[in-house]
Amino acid sequence: MSALLDGKVAVITGAAQGIGLAIAEKFVADGARVVIGDINADQAATAAAGLGDTSVARGVACDVTSAADVQALIDAAVDAFGVVDVMVNNAGITRDATMRKMTEDQFDQVIDVHLKGVWHGTRAAAAHMRERKTGSIINLSSISGKVGLAGQTNYSAAKAGIVGLSKAAAKEVGYLGVRVNCIQPGLIRTAMTEAMPERIWDQKMAEIPMGRAGEPSEIANVATFLASDLSSYMTGTVLEVTGGRYM
């Protein structure tokens, strides 16, 4: 039986660590070649080297707030592997604070990286994919974009915006064979979430019917489904991967 992503080429932003890296690892395991984009060039190169030689994975410096950087990332994938079949817009940051204490800069940074970054990635990938009449774009939203979490007016706004952006883009490019879908992770065990105070962690755990945090690999599995032909008739959808939190 052939692997789910045999012969496919994927670009993943923010993939030097965390969920992005887990997606890259799963894609390679399923037969894809990947290009890792990350703001940190050294970490991107190291992550790519950990996945295999340059015939399998490449690392490229990319600031997703820059249209030129995102285009260069797509171009690097085409130069290395010929095409881009899958685009995963995963790069993100947090600048949590209550609305009263949040600075305008903290708001702008989060909107720029998440919302504008996803727009750049979706736009550049769709422009390439429409010529080939095929492709899957996967945008990482968050449960925060569904329910709104206190201390995250910037992040919740950006993550909700990603859903609207993805649905609008899906309508624009669906007839060209290009699919655009979202994943909304819940509480996933990463370096970022494990840095939370224990009280906050326990509070979040109490909201999860399955009684545990998710693993990055569990997001990667869903990304693999959306990247593959198993989801060939799905576009504009939002897949919640939350253990039942806020259903």
UniProtKB/TrEMBL annotation:
PROSITE patterns from the UniProt entry: ADH_SHORT (PS00061)
A GO term, aspect molecular function: 3-oxoacyl-[acyl-carrier-protein] reductase (NADPH) activity
Thylakoid as UniProt keyword: no
Superkingdom of origin: Bacteria
Keyword set, alphabetical order: Oxidoreductase
EC identifiers of the protein: 1.1.1.100
Annotated ranges, domain Ketoreductase: 8-191
Class of the enzyme per the UniProt entry, highest EC level: oxidoreductase
Similarity field: Belongs to the short-chain dehydrogenases/reductases (SDR) family.
UniProt name for this protein: 3-oxoacyl-ACP reductase FabG
Organism per entry: Gordonia liuliyuniae
Name of the gene this protein is made from: fabG
